[in-house]
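ok so i was messing around last nite and threw this chain in just to see what happens. nothing serious, just curious
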Amino acid sequence: MTLIPTDLSARRIPDAVRDPNREIAASSRVLDLSVGIVVCIPCFRRPQHLRLTLESLVRQRTPRSFAVVMVENDAGGRESAPVAAEFLAAGKLQGVCLVEKRQGNCRAINAAFETAQTLFPAATRFLMIDDDEIASPDWLELMVRTCEATGADVVGGPVLPVFDDDTKPWLSRHPAFCPAYDYSGAVPLIYGCGNCLITRSAFERFGGPAFDLRFNFLGGGDTDFFVRCRDAGMTFHWTAEAVITETVPHSRTSLNWIARRGLRIGAINYRVQYKAAQSAAVRMRVFAQMLGRLPLSLVRAAQLLTTSKAVVAMHPVMVALGAAFAAFGVEPKPYEASKIVS
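result:
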């Protein structure tokens, strides 16, 4: 174990944050540079919930030592930084909180993973949890144990919604909220980084930044990264027991938000597929498939209407429309600061 007091590592931390658009806002009094696990947490204007997220990490049932790297992505308000500083100063968690001055989803996540890899050179496993999520007590242990047992390059787990509006429990079955898998085992791909573990070797297979900045305001940089991991021959494993819960406010259960989420998913799917296409012929095939999904989505919606509510049945149509809009250069930008509802 390599313990260094923060005041004696004044040079170490700046070395890990050489980008002039990033700065350290807080750090724990002691850093253990020998930790093998780092939990990354992008933060944006949810200080009250960040406290719940950090408390859930404090309560992890594991004998393993781990560090945290939090990234405040609101350089003006910095509402998350005082909460992070409180936990770090009290010694409840060890690690750092830095400010990424450039706004956007991929900017924040890249800052977290890059800083974690540089500041903790012995770390080989990097987990991520969002600042509106709460980890179950055995989350970290289950994710790391799965990685050790399977040798997977990427491990994913479910993010289960907890709705502020308890009058719509059926929304948990909506594709926008339902986990990709309901079993533990090897899977072909995971799609989001809200509950994931990525090995250092997976990051080292690619040049930086890991999350493509073309997805910075649209979202989907995680899906794009995992698709590249799959295409590079990496393996994925799903751990259904490693549960994270996500608080879903009223604003995200409205018909308007759910429809826009469908459009965004469609846009992300199209952009990821189009980017992965290696030739003009393949790109034309992606475009043709997008056009073909439009009428098929209507058929699928009609089928769903017999067993589901209309808001669920409309999802395939919204996804198909989102892909079509993206094909013609029209994309949502939900991760622009002006579009985010705290």
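not much to say yet. The mean pLDDT is 93.
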